[in-house]
Write a structure and sequence with these properties.
Length: 344
């Protein structure tokens, strides 16, 4: 059992792939670690064990040092799910014991896990979300027929309205998406991630053929978009945004449909639609409309001083959402640039 930095191992992604753990996701790879370390200065501390020279288990942490929110470890920041890669509960207990030793030594306030419900043996989650997964089919007509009728109608409406979708990994696509992202975050009362975050995503993910941006255009105006990552036969929807003034064109639906077609043609078998707050019933219905399988996703926070798992609140709503909703966009962007490294 040892602590390692995946960014110091050129073969890290190969080691993860060879482990072939069923809970493995894009976020366990080096690309996401690169994005977080470069954008926010987080320190990668991954607890690993080996057996016969091969990777046996992985508990990925980013150490976050903040004067505002304290020093702690998160597995992993800004991910939807990132389960510990471990064979069974006995193995996880060993991982957790070693992690707790380091937490005490480094003065961590808490350890946070984005997943791992099966390994925590009935421990109540600190917070719960919905997760949705779509199993893709190589038969486009068959898959389309399995969609809920409102989704099918929305796709056809977007097509008849002249909306077209471009799928790209170019920096220009990221810039076009980011403009909508900032406006969408303001609408929901949240500051946008800084552009440096998306610049790092382009550098370490999109430019390395590990992700794409799908943009819906009406005439010369981008009206909806989404950012997807992929690894092997799996893909994940990470960010989405749209222009309120063109919602009637149903660009979001066509973005998802064309992205699904694009991934299916390239052998992707599963599309993870990310997490959904229990309070966001509209987004939940939208995802279920794609014939998605629904599950519960638990986040767990272990307080090191209290030596116990503790509950947390869903921070997607509250007084701050009103404040960010009324702030000018430039001010919201400036605050996001300052605060996100502390929020993790």
């Amino acid at each position: 059992m040892q602590w390692t930095n995946p960014l110091e191992h050129s073969d890290w992604d190969l080691q993860i792939a060879e482990q072939n753990h069923p809970a493995h996701s894009f976020f366990h790879g080096a690309a996401w670690a690169n994005v977080l370390a470069e954008t926010y200065g987080y320190k990668p501390l991954y607890l690993v064990s080996h057996e016969a020279g091969a990777l046996r288990s992985v508990l990925p942490f980013m150490e976050v040092q903040s004067a505002l929110t304290g020093k702690r470890a998160v597995a992993l920041p800004f991910t939807d799910t990132c389960d510990p890669l471990c064979a069974d509960r006995t193995g996880f207990k060993e991982l957790f014991r070693n992690a707790l030793e380091l937490a005490r030594a480094r003065g961590w306030k808490y350890m946070e896990f984005h997943g791992g419900q099966k390994l925590l043996n009935g421990t109540p989650p600190s917070h719960s979300f919905y997760g949705h997964t779509v199993n893709l089919s190589s038969d486009e007509n068959e898959f389309f027929g399995q969609l809920k009728s409102p989704v099918r109608r929305a796709i056809r409406k977007a097509e008849k309205s002249g909306v077209r979708v471009e799928i790209s990994a170019e920096a220009e696509a990221v810039r076009n998406f980011y403009g909508m992202h900032c406006k969408a975050r303001k609408k929901h009362g949240l500051p946008p991630q800084p552009y440096s975050f998306f610049r790092s995503i382009h550098k370490h993910i999109l430019a390395k053929d590990r992700g794409v941006v799908a943009l819906a255009w009406w005439k010369k105006t981008p009206v909806a978009g989404a950012v997807f990552f992929h690894a092997g036969s799996d893909a994940i929807y990470k960010f989405g945004a749209s222009d309120d003034a063109h919602q009637h064109l149903r660009g979001n639906n066509l973005v998802f449909w064309e992205a699904i077609r694009w991934f299916s043609q390239r052998g992707v078998k599963k599309l993870d639609l990310g997490r959904t707050s229990a309070h966001n019933e509209g987004l939940r219905r939208f995802k279920l409309g794609w014939n998605a399988e629904e599950k519960s996703v638990g986040y767990f926070r272990f307080s090191v001083p209290q030596e116990a798992f503790v509950s947390t609140k869903d921070q997607t709503s509250g007084w701050h959402t009103y404040a960010f909703n009324v702030l000018p966009l430039f001010a919201s962007r400036m605050i996001g640039k300052i605060l996100y490294r502390h929020w993790a």
